[in-house]
Amino acid sequence: MQHRKIAFIGAGNMAQAIIAGLIAGGYPAGLISVCAPSATRREALVARYGVNGSDDNVGCARAADVVVLAVKPQLMAEVCAPLQQNVDFGAKLVLSIAAGVSIARFRALLGEPLNIVRVMPNTPSLVGKGMSGLYAPEEVSRDDREFSAALMGSVGEVCWVGQEEAINGVIAAAGSAPAYFFLFMEAMQQEAERMGFDAATARLLVQQAASGAAALVEASPDTPLSTLRENVTSRGGTTAQALQVFNERQLPQTVADAMRAAVARAREMETLF
Ligand SMILES: NC(=O)C1=CN([C@@H]2O[C@H](COP(=O)(O)OP(=O)(O)OC[C@H]3O[C@@H](n4cnc5c(N)ncnc54)[C@H](O)[C@@H]3O)[C@@H](O)[C@H]2O)C=CC1
Ligand SMILES: O=C(O)[C@@H]1CCC=N1
């Protein structure tokens, strides 16, 4: 991938996940800056990955070719105000990873012209297993699209969406999704502990079942998920009993409702921040 100067505004979980992936992929640390007011988080990233650290968002953004906005949505307006006043975004590429902040809103927050790509990543980027959805308005150049996809591709898989609204679907299906699986695994670990396993063994049982299931899905791209499920489910056996409980309790509908709630919240956030 091309090497450009990248400034991360925000030093949180998601910025760390992307930085870790970039560094692991051989991206030069000297071309990456991380900016945040709190030294604790920022300096931890500087120490761990050898990137540059600063508390000066404006200075970092000015010096960068690519500005990655990685602060919480509710802070976006506050963070963008000084950037709009002091940074010429004309020749820069801006990537926002924030949920619930639209490109129309960024045009108001940062001014125009604005060369912006919306990215919706997830935290498994930290270990190179991220899933990112990207949306770019028509005017974003091929070069900038390719750079954005390569940047996120260095920490996992990417897919482009043709409509900005589809970013909210990416949030529901991938951005927020690791937390759904963690909740499921937490519940399983707790029950395994109640069954008498010590915490480490309970975690190992659940974690290996989960990562094994995901690996099997990846290794069987032409096999429907329902077939993989059926392959585990012996007639009259234990799995069938467990799945019957999930189905009686409407697990598929619960999952659908949860994903719709994530989309609804993303839409609501677009009106708030
Ligand atoms: N955590 C996740 O799984 C995902 C998060 N996102 C998006 O990523 C963004 C960041 O989320 P997280 O990393 O989870 O949040 P976080 O709370 O871990 O990190 C936010 C960071 O912003 C920094 N910050 C606060 N005020 C600042 C300022 N004035 N200037 C510069 N930095 C400032 C904080 O020091 C903190 O390091 C959010 O907009 C979220 O919607 C997107 C996809 C997944
Ligand atoms: O919970 C959130 O709002 C962010 C967006 C996707 C994952 N975390």
TrEMBL record:
What is this protein identified as?
Pyrroline-5-carboxylate reductase
Family per record: Belongs to the pyrroline-5-carboxylate reductase family.
What is the stated purpose of this protein? Catalyzes the reduction of 1-pyrroline-5-carboxylate (PCA) to L-proline.
What's in the keyword line of the UniProt record? Amino-acid biosynthesis, Cytoplasm, NADP, Oxidoreductase, Proline biosynthesis
- Record: residues binding NADPH: 57
The annotated pathway is: Amino-acid biosynthesis; L-proline biosynthesis; L-proline from L-glutamate 5-semialdehyde: step 1/1
What residue stretches are annotated with the Pyrroline-5-carboxylate reductase catalytic N-terminal domain? 5-100
Example GO CC term: the record gives:
cytoplasm
* Gene name tied to this protein: proC
Q: Which InterPro entries match?
A: 6-PGluconate_DH-like_C_sf, NAD(P)-bd_dom_sf, P5C_Rdtase_cat_N, P5CR-like_CS, P5CR_dimer, Pyrroline-COOH_reductase
What domain of life?
Bacteria
Which Pfam families does its entry note? F420_oxidored, P5CR_dimer
